[in-house]
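Structure tokens please, single chain.
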Amino acid sequence: MKMQKGAFMRGIDNMVIKEIPVPEAGKGQVLVKLEYVGICGSDVHYFHTGACGAYKVDLSEDFMLGHECAGTVVEVGEGVKNLKAGDRVALEPGITCGTCEACKSGHYNLCPDVVFLATPPVQGCNEEYIAFPENMCFKLPDNVSTLEGCLIEPLSVGFHAANQGAVGVGDTVIILGSGCIGLVTLLSCKAHGAGKVIVADLVDARLEKAKELGADHVINSKTQDIFEEIKKLTSGKGADKVFETAGSPVTIAQTPFFVRRGGTIVLVGLSAQEEINYNFAQIMDKEATIKSVFRYRNIYAKAIAAVSSGAIDVKGIVTHQFDLEHAQEAYEEAVNNKTDLVKAVIKI
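Here you go.
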């Protein structure tokens, strides 16, 4: 039996490398030699606290993290028609039932029976090989690397956020939070034609990265009065679209004050706090719309095309790389380095 290495969390803040069998490509599946796996905020929550939102890791067993991945097909199973050995692919990590109302209506991201990599109890992909359904593996064009391929997953969240907000040409956009999801939302809004993008965060290094990736204005809300700054930058009107990507109760509560009359708020970040004080009088006075984001749907092909065409330079969000043997250090850095780590990836 051929063996491979995989990184598993064994209790809180502890990662171990184990030898595990290489899976075989089953019917309708391909075997992918993984090359890059991103570290998502949800992975960090599981690693450091054992939970992310309502999902909790069974700490009595080893659990593999990772769901943002890309690599090269090395073997195809029975019935595979559109992929062959040698094809480079990005994997969309959620396998849905295809038969429920959400799936049939095109909202498959809301499928109640989805099997999503690294969402407990489903194991993730911090490993050398994975067998995966052909129809959830998206072929990468020659000019899109597998590093960029593993970033298609978080980019799809930002792309879906921009779609939910119906960002259009010339829109003024505010993004609260300049972590990975804030930055991919920035890239997506720019690609959708936003005219002015304002990004707020507490960390200067993240704001510098936002400027590097195309933000027109940045606000450090720790050292600046964000209410006054936004008033100045929007001539007192507020923004057409406001995206909350930090998942902070503070920034979520700010959104109704920053949106213009008739504008749209999109809640992207997941807060650990279930109940948040929110000024609905502002919403009703402005007849503002509130939308939310849960993962993404029908985005991967478009996101890959946007990267291939040069409309989105997603690799610019990566600040740190580690190899699989140093998964412990990678996750520790993701937990502890809030200053200049924006996006870490593991090179398999």
